[in-house]
Specification:
Blueprint (H helix, E strand, L loop, with lengths): L18 H11 L6 H8 L4 H11 L1 H15 L3 H13 L6 H11 L13 H24 L23
Length: 167
């Protein structure tokens, strides 16, 4: 993390911040990744699980200030992120070059995962009406066609059963 996240050597309550407490807070906001037990262990406290929670109750204000500072250090502006992606995209040897190019194009609206469809209701309704009319005309023509009959049958006769049952 670099500089200490502990703001001062004396708290508002008048309690003095010792080197060990400072080490606990710095470890919590740094290598322990906000894990109280791990921070207590790294700072050299015995029984780190119990001590970590005790110290958090007693020095919660220090931990909160350290968290704010740690998170500030992690922030990246949109311009920095874009520059990082561009650097990867320009490096022909980088293994994530294709992903970076894709991300860069998406950032600039040149590529999208979603298909955008714009529909004009009037045009759509007109096309649907034309389709329905065409289908209705085809059905009318189909019903108007004379039915073909098998030779030797008269209207109303059923065709003979062509499959004979075995004896």
């Amino acid at each position: 993390m670099g500089a200490s996240a502990v703001p001062s050597q004396t708290l508002k309550s008048g309690r003095r911040v010792t080197g060990k407490i400072k080490a606990f807070v710095d470890a919590w906001a740094g290598p322990a990744k906000f894990n109280l037990s791990e921070a207590a262990r790294l700072a050299g406290y015995g029984n780190p699980r119990r001590r970590g929670h005790e110290l958090a109750k007693k020095y919660g204000d220090l931990l909160e200030a350290a968290k704010v500072e740690a998170l500030k250090a992690l922030k990246m502006s949109a311009d920095e992120a874009e520059q990082g992606v561009a650097d990867i995209a320009r490096d022909p040897t980088h293994r994530d070059r294709i992903k970076a190019l894709e991300m860069f194009l998406k950032m600039h609206g040149k590529l999208s995962d979603k298909l955008q469809v714009t529909v004009d209701r009037a045009t759509l309704n007109k096309q649907l009406d034309e389709l329905i009319s065409t289908m209705a005309a085809a059905r009318t023509a189909q019903l108007a066609e004379p039915k073909l009959q098998e030779p030797g049958l008269q209207d109303g006769d059923a065709p003979p059963n062509k499959v004979e049952a075995p004896n």
